[in-house]
């Protein structure tokens, strides 16, 4: 449901911002707005970019963790 999607996007937005994932946070903000506006098709179209931004953040965090572990 659209309201649940907007709520999840809001949570992702905040969590991503807390760890410095500003690209993911910005994409989640777009999706949150689409959800609040009831724009289901826009939500579906922007989901792949959200997933891509998440993967980028995950990779960056893993890189930092591995670098830290090597020290």
Describe the structure.
The chain has 71 residues and is mostly helical. Helices cover 89% and strands 0% of the residues. The protein is built from 3 helices and no strands. Helix 1 packs antiparallel against helix 2 and helix 2 packs antiparallel against helix 3. The protein is elongated, with a radius of gyration of 14 Å. The chain starts with a helix and ends with a helix. The model has no long low-confidence stretch (mean pLDDT 95).
What's the story with the biggest beta sheet? none
Strand content: under 5%
**Residue ranges: pLDDT <50 for 5 or more in a row?**
none
The ordered string of helix (H) and strand (E) elements is HHH
Query: Helix count?
Result: 3
Averaged pLDDT, please? Answer: 95
Shape: elongated
Distance between the termini: 46 Å
Tally of strands = 0
Helix content: over 70%
Helix and strand content put the structural class at mainly alpha
Give the C-alpha Rg.
Answer: 14 Å
């Amino acid at each position: 449901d659209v309201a649940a999607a907007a709520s999840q996007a809001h949570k992702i937005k905040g969590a991503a911002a807390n760890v410095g994932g500003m690209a993911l946070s910005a994409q989640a903000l777009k999706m949150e707005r689409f959800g609040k506006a009831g724009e289901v098709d826009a939500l579906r179209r922007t989901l792949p970019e959200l997933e891509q931004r998440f993967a980028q953040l995950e990779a960056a965090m893993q890189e930092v963790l591995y670098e830290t572990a090597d020290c």
